[in-house]
From TrEMBL:
It comes from Kribbella karoonensis. Transmembrane segments: none annotated. SUPFAM superfamilies: GroES-like, NAD(P)-binding Rossmann-fold domains. Residues 11-319 form the Enoyl reductase (ER) domain. CDD domains: QOR1. PANTHER family: QUINONE OXIDOREDUCTASE-LIKE PROTEIN 2, SHORT-CHAIN DEHYDROGENASE/REDUCTASE. This is Zinc-binding dehydrogenase.
Length: 322
């Protein structure tokens, strides 16, 4: 089968289209014919070896896909051949991928594979971070970084649905997209002092969805409401950042909460299950519309990942292997 292999951990340029054997579904697994594979920022981090616990090269890249189940491993009873599912499995940038049967979700009625991408990696991440962890409530103010991105767009929609005022950050060229989603304020963090601007708009935000890290992490801490404000850390696209116990005690008494989806699924499956239930309700209510990823051929993967890394992309991206 055709697949995109990371041959060296040198970033997106280390990816090559190769021919490899179709994998086999083992016990508790399903084999999926990939209709569309989701591209995520974690793919960029894996390509540079900066994703904690990420694979060593060479490996077939990608880990999110939607497609048709074509074979079942031993013991699988929860899903049938012919059903379309969305899920995660190592090696998704390929014509076929193996996924754990327990982790796949049926594609919603009337949606195609491309439209289904993002359910777990973007929407569940945004929902779990904002609601059970960030405890977002109607009337709160939330700061959403990278609001035009895959997770960010889902987060803006969710926060608006639950009655929050949304302050979003995005590169200037992406502001119209974020405003159309309903964000109340959009800040170009590259030309404006983010801390000053957020504190001009509010007396502190209740929840920050912190996916950037680096110098931005400190700004997120600075704008969180003293005592009750929560900074939910889900990413480090801009690098590592630190905060000391002294700062948390005296300067910035706020809540700093880490959230990593894989760990949440493993350690708190009830939180993940509740999020999926809520997302299905939001789909029925039309709050969560079919996704509209920008879809490219598998061979364009290196270029698309490089664009994602350089902040040139908007919204969800996908690769089509056929
Ligand atoms: N914890 C979890 O379980 C989990 C799950 C999924 C995703 N994530 C994290 O959520 C974040 C968003 O993921 P995504 O896949 O939806 O990507 P994305 O938001 O579509 O793309 C990343 C965006 O981040 C912004 N950004 C700000 N500073 C950046 C920097 N120094 N380098 C690169 N991008 C920068 C850029 O938007 P602007 O140009 O508008 O600033 C860029 O387009 C990532 O940090 C990812 O690792 C975490």
């Amino acid at each position: 089968m055709r697949a995109l292999e990371q041959q060296e951990l040198t970033g997106p340029e280390g990816l090559r289209v190769v021919d490899v054997a179709v994998p086999e579904a083992g016990t508790g697994q399903v084999l999926v014919r990939v209709g569309a594979a989701g591209v995520n920022f974690a793919d960029v981090m894996q390509s540079r070896g900066t994703y904690d616990g990420g694979p060593q090269a060479p490996y077939v890249a990608g880990f999110e896909a939607a497609g048709e189940v074509v074979a079942l491993g031993d013991g699988v009873t929860t899903v049938a051949v012919g059903e379309h599912v969305i899920g995660t499995g190592a090696g998704a940038f390929a014509e076929y991928v193996v996924m754990p049967a327990g982790g796949v979700v049926r594609v919603s009625d009337g949606w195609n594979d491309e439209q289904a991408l993002g359910l777990t990696l973007n929407w569940a991440t945004a929902l779990i971070s904002l609601r059970p962890l960030g405890r977002l409530e109607a009337g709160n103010t939330v700061l959403i970084h990278a609001a035009a991105g895959g997770v960010g767009q889902a987060a803006v929609r969710i926060a608006k649905h639950y009655g929050a005022t949304v302050i979003a950050t995005a590169s200037a060229a992406k502001h119209d997209v974020v405003r159309r989603l309903g964000a109340d304020h959009v800040i170009d963090y590259r030309t404006v002092d983010l801390t000053k601007e957020v504190l001009r708009l509010t007396d502190g935000v209740d929840v920050v969805l912190e996916s950037v890290g680096g110098a931005t992490f400190r700004q997120s801490i600075e704008v969180a409401r003293r005592v009750t404000g929560k900074v939910v850390v889900i990413g480090a696209a801009g690098g590592e950042a630190t905060i000391s116990n002294w700062e948390l005690n005296f300067q910035h008494p706020v809540h700093v909460i880490g959230q990593h989806l894989t760990t949440t699924i493993q350690q708190a499956p009830e939180i993940f299950a509740a999020a999926l239930e809520e997302l299905h309700r939001l789909i029925k209510e039309g709050v969560y519309p079919p996704g509209e990823p920008t879809v490219y051929d598998l061979a364009d993967g290196p270029k698309i990942l490089a664009e994602l890394e350089s902040r040139a992309t908007v919204g969800k991206l996908a690769l089509r292997p056929w």
